[in-house]
Amino acid sequence: MLTINILTMGGNKMNDSTRIMELLKEVNSLMDKGLKNYFSDCGITVTQLAVVNILGKRDMVKLNELSEELKITPTAVSLIVNRLESQGLIERVRSKEDKRVVYAKLSDKFKSTHGNLNNNIDGFLALLLGSKNKEEIQKIFDGLEILKTLLESSEKIISTHIKMN
């Protein structure tokens, strides 16, 4: 079993890593809350919103592809799709070539009621960013790019650390 002692990496890394994890949790929670408020007229959860968002970008999506893209179990996707279908927001469509394959797509009802969901999500973020100046927005971009780059290099960093121990 591999044990990594972060305290031996020098400096205040434990405090930094704990603070980053707490901030990420808070940001995620606040985004969920903000999206729920912004889309309260839809009556759907953030996970359901993620499904609808994917369907808004593509005409039809296989249920197993939704599962893979959202990184949730096929059972969870099926429950989400059931709920959205019962609300009349999406439709299931069986493949003509293979009846075992099931697709989901946005319903005409959803499209007529909510229009282009991507524009609505952009509207939510634009509303938030509208309260910030260009320098603050650039700091957000810079911080997110640094975090993204760090996470992209995580495999190499971990591999190097393991070899050193």
Note the main attributes of this structure:
Arc Repressor Mutant, subunit A, disordered N terminus, 8 helices, 165 residues, mainly alpha
Would you tell me which CATH topology of the largest domain applies?
Answer: Arc Repressor Mutant, subunit A
User: Helix/strand/pairing class, anyone?
Assistant: mainly alpha
**Radius of gyration of CA atoms, rounded to a whole number:** 21 Å
CATH architecture of the largest domain: Orthogonal Bundle
Helix residue percentage: 55-70%
Look at the structure and name the CATH superfamily of the largest domain.
Answer: Winged helix-like DNA-binding domain superfamily/Winged helix DNA-binding domain
Overall geometric form: globular
Question: What's the story with the biggest beta sheet?
Answer: 3 strands, antiparallel
- Kindly provide the name of the CATH class of the largest domain: Mainly Alpha
Placed side by side, the strands forming the largest sheet appear as: 1-3-2
Average residue pLDDT: 84
Q: How many beta-strand elements?
A: 3
Percent range for β-strand residues: 5-15%
Calculate the terminal CA-CA distance, rounded to whole Å.
Answer: 13 Å
Uncertain residue ranges? 1-9
